[in-house]
Prior knowledge:
The chain is mainly α. The protein has two domains: 4-127, Alpha-Beta Complex (Spore Coat Polysaccharide Biosynthesis Protein SpsA, Chain A), CATH 3.90.550; 176-362, no CATH class. The chain is built from 16 helices and three strands. The protein has helices at residues 4-7, 10-15, 42-64, 80-84, 100-110, 131-150, 152-160, 163-172, 174-200, 202-207, 216-229, 232-246, 248-260, 263-284, 303-332, 338-361; strands at 28-35, 77-78, 115-125. Helix 9 (174-200) packs across helix 14 (263-284), helix 11 packs parallel to helix 16 and helix 12 (232-246) packs across helix 13 (248-260). InterPro entries: Glyco_trans_48_dom (IPR003440).
Amino acid sequence: DNYMEEAFKMRNLLEEFLITHGKSKPTILGAREHIFTGSVSSLAWFMSNQETSFVTIGQRVLANQLKVRFHYGHPDVFDRLFHLTRGGISKASKVMNLSEDIFAGFNSTLRQGNVTHHEYIQLGKGRDVGMNQISNFEAKVANGNGEQTLCRDIYRLGHRFDFFRMLSMYFTTVGFYFNSMVAVLTVYVFLYGRLYLVLSGLEKSILQDPNIQNIKPFENALATQSVFQLGMLLVLPMMMEVGLEKGFGRALAEFVIMQLQLAPVFFTFHLGTKTHYYGRTILHGGAKYRGTGRGFVVRHAKYAENYRMYSRSHFVKALELFILLVVYLAYGSSYRSSSLYLYVTVSIWFLVFCWLFAPFLFNP
């Protein structure tokens, strides 16, 4: 799917194959994508913004500073001869190599290829627009990433790369999903630990100990942590990109509008999707391709459909956390200052709310 004026630049892009980038000539030329489905719904807009920051700032840094850009989707141009003489592009297993595009990049890099990124040309792309479509897509990507975690390609790359490229590769492929999973597991560990403290009476004795009364620095530390916990750091690249392309006033306005359209609820919900499918793939395997259709879905999804889709991954877990929070509140309410309790648990309450109600909030 190309635009007329972009097609004229194709000759210039192909000339890049003759230019040495870094140490060698490129084997895959990366180009950026332009998401044109952003105006369909608020969800489509969130997704297109997220994607825009990834295909511009994200891939620019991956390609030029870190040298760990692999292959991310349809605008990339392959050096056909290089790849055909090194075992072709596709891998054999339809389970392990679910994210087929990035495996082409792994192959190329392992065989001394060079992947670049060029931003003077862009190709159109339609992203998923409905809540259930987006969930299917995220599930597919998380499944694929779970399989990447187990695959040999990552293992070999990790052994052959120098220290900095190794870390860059980790945090841009497997590490991103692993960190999401650890974040959610931490919430569980934290709540069960708190529950133990409350039920055993330890928390009461600690809080009523005169030596420990009114530690202001401790309360301040908890307060600042709860601000950063709401994922402010992941918004920064997107703000920077919109600021560069459209001006920082516009970026600020878009940020405010996104908050009003409940973007944090949406992204917190998808943290759950990623974690669930990534963890399940690592435990049980069995990733499969999920056709999302990519139609313009602006229909009302039935409750039964939503429940079937999200019960295992979100609702059950959210209810467990909810029960833990309620028990924790009920058993400790007699001796606790309300502000401290709020600082500690407000982000977890938010998580529970998002996981329980996001599919219904975003149901047109």
